[in-house]
Write a structure and sequence with these properties.
This protein has 58 residues and is mainly alpha-helical. The chain has one domain (3-57). Helices cover 79% and strands 0% of the residues. The protein is built from 2 helices and no strands. Helix 1 (3-23) packs antiparallel against helix 2. It is elongated, with a radius of gyration of 14 Å.
Length: 58
């Protein structure tokens, strides 16, 4: 398995983690600041991993 495929799969897992954190909000308070920050951080890491994987495959 090439490193490009591994990076694309890793990006998919990170996108799933970002989505999971984004959906886990408190009933009355909504999303907290650190929760939003960590979800955005995971999303950026996922996008970087996915783009790097696609570029490795090309």
């Amino acid at each position: 398995m090439s490193s490009g495929v591994v990076l694309v799969v890793l990006g998919g897992f990170l996108i799933g983690g970002a989505w999971s954190i984004w959906k886990a909000d408190h009933d009355t308070k909504g999303r907290t600041g650190p929760q939003v920050g960590f979800a955005v951080l995971l999303l950026v890491a996922a996008l970087l991993a996915t783009v790097a994987g696609v570029l490795r495959l090309v």
